[in-house]
Amino acid sequence: MKFNSFNLLAAAACVVAAPAPALAPRTVKDGISAWQKSDYAQAVAIWTPLAEKGDADAAFNLGQAYRLGRGVKIDLSAATRWLEKAAKAGHLDAQTTLGLLQFDGGDRDAAMRWLKQAAERGEARAMLVYGTALFNGDAGARDPITAYAYVSRAAAQGLGPAKTTLAEMDAVLPIDLRKKGVALAQSKAKAAPAPSAKPPIKVGARPAAEKTAARAEPAPAASANGKWRIQLGAFSKRNSAEALYKKLSGSAPVAGHPATYVAVGAVTRLQVGGYPSKAAATSACATLSARGQACFPVEGK
Q1: How much is the pLDDT for 203?
Q2: 147 CB-near residues (< 8 Å, 6+ apart)
């Protein structure tokens, strides 16, 4: 059989000229699928160009990857940069996570700005930490009424540490201030923006994902001889502070670190030390914050 060379060349030309099938563009969901398969490097590779183009969900997830050290080395500066990019775009979880990260790192002014924004939008963790800071005077002048309003709203959403903090506030605040706090909470709840019909895409459910990470990779224990401490709360009764320390002292990053009870007026602050550096205390707080426990580093005397 004799082949027609012209037809063969034409067929070859057709094959060469035929365009390759277009690859579907990668999405945030593709990165989440890779993340859920523990292919963290692939997830980061997918999210990076999307985040660079301004996708807030991708920027938030990328910030979490750098914060947790998944697919990349832990880099809190990079985590802060990507979380801030998402937070500025209005990403609620990014605003909260960035605020907590900055709070743990000691940049309280910046932290309060983001936590206040997230608290005003009704994010439970932000309301707890911001409300506690207002109550203790760590965000400027003490404001027990607004503090009570935020913490009560966080407790109403079922956040365990908020329920504990609210009970402590109930024990120390007079009834008239609590009533004003409740009225303010109701007003803020009505004024809060309605939740989006399409919740943002993110890496798993926030509480489950972060609690799992905290258990799997606790902050390494530090020497108990350092001068840095972590503050875990302020209580109207010392025995409540002692109870919290007893609850946390059996596991990292609190295990092996003694408690210090600091009396400030009618309030007892629970501080745990001593961590050898601010970085070690910040790392401990990052682990505890992921579990919903309010925490920030303080330098001991």
Answers
A1: 57
A2: 131, 132, 133, 134, 135, 169, 181
Count Cβ atoms below 10 Å from residue 146 Cβ, excluding itself. 20
Residues 6+ apart with CB under 8 A from 190: none
Sequence spans of domains, the chain: 27-90, 91-192, 215-299
- Domain 91-192 annotated CATH 1.25.40.10: yes
Torsion, Cα 95 212 271 114, to 10 degrees, reads: 0
- Written as six digits, the tokens of 26 are 């990668």
Q: What kind of fold does domain 27-90 have according to CATH? A: 1.25.40
| C-alpha torsion sign, points 274, 275, 276, 279 | negative
Residues of the chain with pLDDT under 70: 1-24, 194-225, 290
Contact 288, 295 (CB under 8 A): yes
Strand, helix or coil for residue 291:
coil
What's at 12, amino acid-wise? A
Element (H, E) at 282: helix 278-290
Tokens describing residue 106: 């000691």
Task: Give pTM, 2 decimals.
Answer: 0.65
Residues 240, 168 contacting (CB under 8 angstroms):
yes
The pLDDT value given to residue 153? 93
Which class in CATH covers the domain with range 215-299? alpha beta
Q: Is 5 exposed, middle or buried (0-12, 13-18, 19+ CB in 10 A)?
A: exposed
Q: Rg of the Cα trace of the chain? A: 25
Is 91-192 the same fold as 27-90?
Answer: yes
Contact 3, 11 (CB under 8 A): no
Question: What distance in Å separates the CA atoms of residue 141 and residue 134, rounded to the nearest whole number?
Answer: 7
Q: How many CA atoms lie within 13 A of 144 on its CB side?
A: 16
3-class SS of residue 102: helix
Q: What is the pLDDT of residue 296?
A: 80
The dihedral through the CA atoms of 28, 86, 103, 227 has a sign that is positive
Q: pLDDT at position 207, please?
A: 29
